[in-house]
Structures are given as C-alpha cells and as structure tokens.
Amino acid sequence: MFDKLAFVVFLSSARDCNIDFYEAVEIIIHFNWDYCQSCVYLTYKVGDFTLFQEEFAGSLGVVSFRRVFFLKRGDLYADDEGFVIAKYNVCAANTPSFCFERFCFVTGELDACRVGFEDLVVEACASVYEGLHSFIVAGGGGDGNAFFVCYTFRMKEAIRDLVREAVPKGARDSVEVLVPDNPDHGHYSTNAAFVVAKIEKELPMEAAEKIKDQILKSKNDILANVMVVAPGFVNFWISDDALFDGLDGVLKKPEKFGEGDGGDKKTVMVEYFQPNIAKVLHVGHLRSAVIGDSVKRMLLSQGYKAVSDTHVGDWGTQFGILLFGYRQLSDVDQKKIEEDPFRYLNDLYAAENKKIDDDPDYREKGKEEFAKLERGDMENRKIWQWMVDVSMKKIEESAELLGLLEFDEHMNESVYEDDMPGITELLLKKKIATKGDDGAVYVDLEPQGLGWGVLIKSDGASTYLLRDLATFRHRMDHWKFWRNTYVVDERQAHHFRQLFAIVELLGWRKIDESVHISFGFMSLPEGKMSTRTGEIIPLQEIVDDMITRAREVIAEKNPDLKDADEVARQVALGALKYFDLSHHRKSNIVFDRERALSFEGNTGPYVQYTYARLRSILRKVEENKKTRKQEIAGDISLDDVERRLLVELLRFPDVIQEAIEGWAPNVVANYVFGLAQKANEFYHSHPVTQEKDEGVRAFRVALVEGVSVTLKNGLYLLGIEAPEEM
C-alpha cells in the first residue's frame, strides 16, 4: 500500500485551453462510480474548499487513483466507463491546445507532500491552490477548482487492474489474483488465462502469453518480472523500487498502515458476546466475544461504521425457571445468593434443570412463571429486574477484562417487549403468519425447507424468533444498516435462516443483507461445557490461571522485566484470544493452556515476542527510524530474505480485505504469524545495528520498523496488545 498526496484540478469548461500542462499536470483517470466504488478512499477539507466524494461523483463520476503509480508526469488520459480510450502527451503534442468538455488533472508530488497531509499547514495548501488556480485561469481554461486528495495504492488491486485491462471485457469479472504457496512462483499469480481461453476458444498457454505481452506494454513501474508457466498461470514479481516506495509509505504514517476507506462509512451491525443474565461467563463465551470484537475492529479499520450490540439474553422460559427456583428458596438462602448473585444464581439454574431432567413436567412451572412475567406480574418483575441489574454490572466487568471495544448498544431482549405484539399483528395481517387453534402463532416456511417458525407459543409466551424480529426492525429503522451480522454459534444456523426468510417475506430486507457469522464449539480437555448442567469453569478463573502461568514463564525468561505483572496480563489475554482466532471460526477446538502460552509455533506469545524483539533492535538505533524512500533506496540490492519479508509486509492491506470478505479473523492471525516467522528468519541471518554499510543499515532499520508496525497493527485487529518488552 502506498499513501500519496496529490493535487486534483477540475476544469468544468476546458475549451481551447492554451496551457502547457507538462510542468503542472501528471495524469487524469476518470471512472464511473460503479466501477471504482471500492477504490475511492477519502475526503479532505483545506481552507475554504472541500472535496466530497458525493459531489465529485455527481459532477464527474468518480476519479480512481489506483493507476497513478504507473503513469508518467505529463500524460493526459481520457476514458469511457473506466477504460482508457485516448492518450495525449502534452510534451509530444503539436500544439498545447485541447478541446475537451472537462477533465480532472492530478499534479506530480510536491516536495511538501512527502511529509503527509496532516503535516501540511493550511497556508501552504492555500498558496499552492491559488497558484494553480491562477495558472488555469491565465491559460484560458475557464472555470476550475482544485483539491488536495490522498489516495491509497494496494499491490494486489494494482495487479488485478493490469490483468483486467489485458483481457477481453467478458473475462474481467472472473479474474482472480492470488498469492502462490510457493514463493518461486512469484509474489502474485493469476488464473486469467484459463478464463480467456474458455471464452476465446484457445489454449491457456496461448492466452497467458497474450496477457503477459499486454501487461508488459503498459510500461508500469510496479513489476520486475512477468512469467508464464504451464498449464497457463501468469506469475508476477514486484519491483524493488515499488517495494521501497511501499515501505516509505508505511513509515510515513505507521499507525495508519492497513487502514482504508473502502467501507465508505456504510453501517454494519455486529451482534456478539450475547451473555445471559444470572449466568456465570465461562470460556465457552470467549468465541463470540473475541471473533465479534475482531470483526468490528477490521470493519472500523476499512472505513465502515461498525455498530456493536451485546444483545443480552434476559427474556424467555429459562428466566421463568430461575424465577420459580428463586421463589422456592427460604429467606436465608435468598440472602446467601445476594452475597455472590452471579455464582449462586448459576448454581440455582443448574439445580432447577436437574429437576427438569428428572421430571419433565417440572419445566411447565418455569414456563408459567415466565408467562406471568410477560403479563406484568409485579413480584416476578421485581425479582427479574434485580437479576438484570446485578448481571449487567458483571457483564460489563467481563467485557473490560477481555479488553473488548466499547459496545455501542446493550439492547437486552426485554427492550423489545412492547414491539412484539405489533410485529405479530403485522405478520398476521399480511397473512405471513397463522394463528393455530391452540393460540400459537407461526410462519409456515416449509416451501423454503425451513419448517415452521414459531413466534408465540400456545401459552402466550414469545419466542426467540419473535424477539429477534423486533430487534431486526429496531436496527433497520434506527441504524439503517447496510449489513446486519450475528456472531453466534453454529447451533443457531436454522434459527437465523428462518429469521432472514421472514424478514424477506415482510419486505424489510433481502436475505443476503444479513449474515450469520457462525462458529464451532470451544471445549476444555475435560469435555464440553454447559451452564445448564453446571459443568463450567468461569472465565475469570481461566484468565487468572493464564496470567499466573504467563508470569511464571516471564520470570524464567526475563526475571528483571519491568512491569512484569502488566506484561503477564497482556501475554495471557493474547494467548487466550490468539488460540481462538488462529483457528477458522467454524472449527471445533479444544482449549489447551500450555500450547496457547507457548513462545514457539503459531501462538500469540510467539508473535508478541517477535514484536518485542524488533522493538529492542530499534531502541538501540540512534538515527531517526522514519527513514524516507530517498534515504533507503540508493544502490541497495535486496536479497531473497529481505525481499520476501518486504513483500509479505506490504500484503497487509490485502489481508485485511480478505479477512473481511470471509468474516475470518484467522486470516489476519495466520498472516501475522507468517510475518513473524519471516522476521525471525531475517533477524537471525541479517545484522542490523552491526551492519557496516550505512545504506544497507538504514534500509534494514526501516524494514524492522515497518515489520514491527505491521505486527502491532495486525495484533490490534485481533484485540491483542503488543508489549514493548517481554
């Protein structure tokens, strides 16, 4: 990813424009909105003039800067529907006169732009703006305007664009660019030749050669080599100059590396954690919490408006069971529960469920108590509200313990109590739902292969499905979301298919606008956990045990470490989260404490320790670590280890995008592990502080800085802290 800053000049009536643009203009690329929606990144205001994406789209379509890196200063492009149809080089033109309705020009980089947008003073921007505006007017360009724009360049997207331009239109949507498993097969590879061969009725190798020739004709600056290999893959190697440029971009704004604006501030609801009141949180709750937290972090990093909701469970028959059990207790026992309500209520719930196992009719008593609660029974309401109050305090403490991002909403199920009758009435009125002879209300989803979706039980109690419909409408009306996601275990898959189907029948939203981000079970070596049976280990106990173990490891490896207790906490939580997130979310996993805390292999502590080791190197370096491109490029020749590490570092933005597309934090986890491995290979084979050649030393310091920044940013997306020392 390369972050650059340029000047965009918009001429709204550039007729008979007698201007020598060669000294002022670099390029123009004009795309329609649909083509490059994911490629326009941000909006800036400088002084009295502002560029908004919406305004730009309304007047010009949209300008995409993805190919800025390939084009030479002085080239002028006009295009139609995103593809170049004419090229004019001002320097080579017979006369510097053009007669086009309107163009958008982008200047070459100014010296002041190298320090990044935030470091430019408004006065300097205004001065440059006034100069260019005068230049336009003096040349007879008519009305015009100018804006500062920052754009982001991603290697994978750039190569995909090159390939798409090199193939027929019918093949462009099917083009894929991948990272080969074998580094000998290039930094990137494409299947485009197989797609073209099928369309053009030719051999894949022939199609691959044509694609290669077209790409080489583009004379881009990003590729060092393009090679065709059997049976028809086209492989690409990134040039060292492009890699230096990329590293320079990382070091300009290290804390921003990996971020993007492709989300365009679209609202994505992320429901996760979902604890129940009066139940002790255990390690089984970890999956929803850490997966959801990571998904939210990734979405925020790419410019989405991610809105999180715990959706606390505080309504339903299970609370009727608790109410019935509580009301059977003596005054002495009720006072005892108040000493540690979370733990005792959890034990009470397990005991009541044991009675149900022994006598299934006992469950009816709980159902009766919940029905009374829904009808507004004052005594049940009072007891239930007390359970909610003490539980919410504990839930917030647990979220803080895990280091989760602050939730935007804590919308308990009971919040929607007053909304449910209206939704039931609406479903009946639209003849989507049916009321049975026993009073139950259900939706017949047999045509969709989903059975019956029960909304109201025969005893008048609401179901989880109806409560989720009320929740959905709140999110739709209040947040006007683009996507609505639920991080819930795979056992609820059928429920969410029913929910999404009913939502579509109501005409509220299409099925594909909601996503069930399902995950498998986490268990302990002793077996599965169950709040219902009381077979759990509280989350707090697991965290405390992990911190104790981490402290012991640190005392052995670095007994003089400052802030050892804080580092132990960071390592313990990092180990817990990473163990979960390094697995695919759909996998069933057995939590192994010793493996999770290991400083070797694919673990959180291994990645954290690699980061700390790199920071230790940088603390030894006296020079300014933010080395710029012109200081590190020079005559340096990269070897294979350095090049592989730098290429892997610059893949980070693409990795985040891939992880979001699959709602898969494990993609980021596996990436930071792979980067840490390559960093350790480099560390053991290449001297940094002891390197004699000043140019090589400066480059390696910059590389260490870039890798450490990337590891820290990657760990953050997983909700894991990166200790400076370990």
Short description:
The protein is 46% helix and 14% strand. α12 (362-374) packs across α13, α20 packs antiparallel against α25 and α22 runs parallel beside α25.
Q: Give me the side-by-side strand order of the main sheet.
A: 10-11-13-12
CATH architecture of the largest domain: 3-Layer(aba) Sandwich
Show unreliable segments: 1-129, 139-152, 624-630
The amount of beta strand, in percent, is: 5-15%
How many β-strand runs?
A: 22
Main sheet summary: 4 strands, antiparallel
Number of domains: 4
- What does the overall shape look like? flat
CATH topology of the largest domain: Rossmann fold
Q: Please give the share of residues in helix.
A: 40-55%
* CATH classification, class level of the largest domain: Alpha Beta
Category from helices, strands and their pairing:
alpha+beta
Mean pLDDT: 78
Q: What is the tally of helical segments? A: 25
* The CATH homologous superfamily of the largest domain: HUPs
Secondary-structure blueprint:
Elements: E1 2-11, E2 17-18, H1 33-36, E3 45-46, E4 49-50, H2 53-60, E5 75-80, E6 83-89, E7 97-98, E8 103-106, H3 122-138, E9 144-153, H4 155-166, E10 177-178, E11 188-190, H5 192-200, H6 204-217, E12 223-229, E13 233-238, H7 240-252, E14 267-271, H8 286-301, E15 305-309, H9 317-327, H10 331-339, H11 341-358, H12 362-374, H13 378-401, H14 420-429, E16 433-435, E17 441-444, E18 452-456, H15 464-479, E19 483-489, H16 493-506, E20 514-519, E21 522-523, H17 539-557, H18 564-581, E22 589-590, H19 593-596, H20 604-619, H21 629-632, H22 640-650, H23 652-661, H24 665-685, H25 694-717
Parallel strand pairs: 14-15, 14-19, 19-20, 21-22
Antiparallel strand pairs: 1-8, 1-9, 2-7, 3-4, 5-6, 10-11, 11-13, 12-13, 16-17, 17-18
